Amino acid sequence: MTFSERIRAVKPSRWLRFAIVSIIFFLWVAWLGNPWVALAWLLLFDIYITGYIPFTAWKKSKNKTFKSVMSWVDAIVYALILVYFVFAFIGQNYQIPSSSLEKTLLTGDYLWVNKFVYGPRVPMTPVHFPLTHNRLPVLNCNSYLDSPSLEYHRLKGLRSVERGDIVVFNFPAGDTVTTRFEDSPEYYDALVRKYGREAIKANPQTFGEVIYRPVDRRQNFVKRAVGLPGERLRISGDTIYVDGKPLEFPKDVQFNYLVATSRSLDEETARRYDITPSDVYPVRGDMSAQAAGIFGPDAPADSHFYIMPLTAGAISRMSDDGVLSAYVKYNDLTATAYPQTNDYIFPEGPGAEWTLSNYGGPLGILIPAKGLTVPLTRENWLTYHRAIRNYEGHTDAHWDDEAACAVIDGKPAETYTFGMDYYFMMGDNRDNSQDSRFWGFVPEDHIVGTPILVLASFDRDRGLFDGKIRWNRILRDANPDK
């Protein structure tokens, strides 16, 4: 058939469908801001009108089995394309894997994350399987191709990240990972500090292969935004101060406590006070004697001692019911409540004396902002070198000890001007959250979206017929404090 014959053979209903699809397509191209993508309209024209590319040639086959199989393949392909665009530009479901935001979000919550609100990020690795993140199950290989890759570009959204937002983002320190520790709290930088880079490379049987992950293929984290670009943040006695002003605690914020109880806490008792049973750690033996000494007469001789995270509401209810005899913040027991974690607090130099409860020093830590210029002193270099080198692309940037100055792109640099906005993220479960206090700032190109709805929720400590499904959380607001 000639071109004109193909045009004349198209039914009016198909022309109408093509017109609707074309309008949607060109609106999408305008939103993308990339006119070159408009060339793909020619493919749509052929699919709907001319039919030179035989996408549907299988429909003419006389083999019924072949036609049946191909009809399923055709439907699945269309469904995957639709899922790809919905997940990339509108929203996506995510699972809460850890307790860092309890009790606001619970381990086992499945969330619908709105990508539209901050403006969807154009996929940097556009060729990927839409229903997986970075690895294909069973095959255990990458679910994406490293090439072609696109530069970071975010489409226009409704607003930027606000303080108090719960945000899903790609883990910034997840750029380099060891395959056997990728899902572990011990990320690559922490492993390097603990074992050394050479030891990790020399023991692949223990650590796995060392690989690089593109920005949009790094592990997904979810935390609350507490510090915005250009602000100074510090923590004193667990209270967050931004530019010198204290922030209110989220309603369900919780901290770790050493507690004395009047009776043993079984699973049902723990649940009665909204405590996750797996988070309750009994204190026994010599430590029990130490705990009794800490509380003194406030803890009767038959007291039971535990370490666990509690909200203010749980403390109040347990005290009113006579279950809680005495309690003390675990962080407050010594000046260095978490000696095993202080070695990992961000940044390595200035943060050496900081703790989870007292962070940022007297002035606070300055969060980078696009266009903000900072002097590159030795102390500032320790704070900002990862942002300069790993996030902003100056891969050869380093500190020259001999010259006592930073070197960026082969030249000495006394100052640096940031090219992106950054955020400081923390969990509501303050003492059990691996967040910006450990690995630093979250760059704007790592932001995925904000959860708006709990789609479903499953209790990891219960069986299927023993309350595993949390019915009261289905279709619940994912951020009731905002």
Q: What's the end-to-end separation, in Å?
A: 61 Å
| Beta strand count | 25
Largest pleated sheet:
8 strands, antiparallel
Estimated share of beta-strand residues: 15-25%
Poorly predicted regions: 335-340
Using only C-alpha atoms, the radius of gyration works out to 27 Å
Class from secondary-structure proportions: alpha+beta
Supply the number of helical segments. Answer: 13
Mean pLDDT: 91
Helix content: 25-40%
Judging from the principal axes of the Cα atoms, what is the shape?
globular
How would you describe what is shown here?
The strands form seven sheets. Strands 1, 2, 5, 8, 22, 23, 24 and 25 form an eight-stranded antiparallel beta sheet that branches. This protein has a four-stranded antiparallel beta sheet with strand order 11-10-9-16, with no helix packed on it. Strands 13-14-12-15 form a four-stranded antiparallel beta sheet. Helix 2 runs antiparallel to helix 3. The protein is globular, with a radius of gyration of 27 Å. It has 13 helices and 25 strands. It is an alpha+beta fold and 482 residues long. The longest helix has 26 residues, at 64-89.
What is the structure about, briefly put?
This protein is α+β, with helices and mostly antiparallel strands. It has helices at residues 3-9, 12-32, 41-50, 64-89, 188-195, 197-202, 204-207, 267-272, 285-295, 312-320, 339-342, 378-391, 436-439; strands spanning 91-95, 109-114, 135-136, 141-142, 166-170, 176-178, 210-212, 220-227, 232-236, 239-242, 245-246, 254-261, 281-282, 304-311, 324-329, 365-366, 373-375, 398-400, 405-408, 411-413, 415-417, 422-426, 442-443, 447-457, 476-477. It has 13 helices and 25 strands.
